[in-house]
Amino acid sequence: MPSYPQENSGLLQIPHAEIQKRIFGHKLFGLDSLQECLFRFCKAVITADKSRIQDFIFYDLVPSILLYGPPNTGKTTLCHLLFDRLKKEVTNEVNFYTIDIGQMLDPALGQSSRNLEKAFEDLRKVCSSGSSAFLVIDELDSFCMSRSRTQEHDAIRRAMTTLILELDRLHPSSTRKLILFGITNVHNLIDTAVVRRFSLKHSVDASLSWNDFCAYIEYLSKPINYVFQEHDLKQLYDGYKRRELKSGDIKAFYKEILIDVICKDEEVSIKDKLFSLFSEGFSTNEHLIKTYGEFVDDRQRISNR
Ligand SMILES: Nc1ncnc2c1ncn2[C@@H]1O[C@H](COP(=O)(O)OP(=O)(O)OP(=O)(O)O)[C@@H](O)[C@H]1O
Ligand SMILES: [Mg+2]
Fold first, then answer.
1. pLDDT tens-digit series, residues 6-26
2. 11-203 sits in which CATH class?
3. pLDDT digits over 69-125, tens only?
4. What mean pLDDT do residues 273-287 have?
5. What pLDDT, in 10s, does the model give residues 235-268?
6. CA pair distance 281, 279, nearest whole angstrom
7. For residues 3 and 13, is the Cβ–Cβ distance under 8 A?
8. Exposed/middle/buried for 16, CB within 10 Å: 0-12, 13-18, 19+?
9. What's a Gene Ontology MF term here (predicted)?
10. Residue ranges of the domains in the chain?
């Protein structure tokens, strides 16, 4: 993967060509208004004139956006698509950065904090030279859980404190060219001090309307040349609703179908396979309920001791 580490702080620049490879042919369904709103906000930030910056300062509005929602709902893809659109439609002078949290976190005393400080320092330098930086911190929960303050390893606790300080340093007048996205699928477990510092907080968990669902199935069925009848689609939509499937679950079903089409000797009935997957295939939501229930039970057991 052609990404470029910068002095081991964990900051990585990912080239536009690499982002384009990751999202090749990708389209998100049921998230149009969120995508449009975030695109307009990022564009307004990057192209802000003096009077718009004064508005930002007046309302303390910094370009920090928290995206939260269950796994498999398109959060990471949304950031990639947004960046690609900004790059194509607004300015070529914007680059994509992310923080490799495994690399940033370092057990040596104070090193995680220094790494994070260094990452932000480097980004500020990039911005002061006229470019814009689109920073995505994915899996924010890996160092910003509320229990980190009291229970976690020192390195994690200090990294979270540094992030809070860095979020405070994002000032509308000085850092308008640094757009920060934080992503998590457990925002209710993230420390409130972190959550409240994000100017925008958006849930990403599309519940597909009938029309969006049909469009999504048509889009996914195209490469395997399959067209569903309306009454079959209705049955699939019932399964989607009943099992509260996530959009990414449906895409994963098509992955299985493609494998069958490629690998099986006998003719595969795409319709039968998809029906069976919609009723028994992996559901992120069902898995989440099961594991989260176990997680809560464990915590209760510990606190009752
Ligand atoms: N609303 C959607 N419409 C179409 N495809 C979607 C949608 N949501 C997710 N997908 C697809 O599902 C897959 C998983 O998406 P993605 O990795 O962006 O989810 P995520 O929310 O970041 O998950 P996690 O929280 O586990 O990191 C991708 O291939 C993406 O294109
Ligand atoms: Mg993700």
1. 458 999 999 999 999 999 999
2. alpha beta
3. 999 999 999 999 999 999 999 999 999 999 999 999 988 888 999 999 999 999 998
4. 96
5. 999 999 999 999 999 999 999 999 998 888 777 7
6. 6
7. yes
8. middle
9. ATP hydrolysis activity
10. 11-203, 210-284
* Closest-approaching ligand to the CA atom of 34: 1
Question: Counting beta carbons within 10 angstroms of the beta carbon of residue 136, is it exposed (0 to 12), middle (13 to 18) or buried (19 or more)?
Answer: buried
In testing the pocket of ligand 1, which one of 35, 72, 141, 222 has its CB within 8 Å of the most ligand atoms?
A: 72
pLDDT tops 90 at residue 40: yes
Q: With a 6 A CB cut-off, is 284 part of the ligand 1 pocket?
A: no
The residue nearest atom 15 of ligand 1, judged by CA position, is 74
The strand pairing partners of 202, in sequence order, are 67
Q: What is the structure's pLDDT at 264?
A: 80
Do residues 247 and 206 touch, judged by C-beta distance below 8 A?
Answer: yes
What SS3 class is residue 86? helix
- In this predicted model, which residue has the larger pLDDT, 150 or 195? 195
Overall pTM surpassing 0.85 (yes/no): yes
CB 250 within 8 A of CB 216: yes
Helix then strand then coil, % of the chain, to nearest 5: 60, 10, 30
Among protein residues, the one whose CA lies closest to atom 12 of ligand 1? 248
**Atom 16, ligand 1: residue with shortest CA distance:** 74
Orientation of helix 210-221 relative to helix 247-263, angle to 10°? 30
Task: Kindly state if the Cβ of 72 falls inside 6 Å of ligand 1.
Answer: yes
Ligand 2 is an ion; residues with CB less than 5 A from it: 76
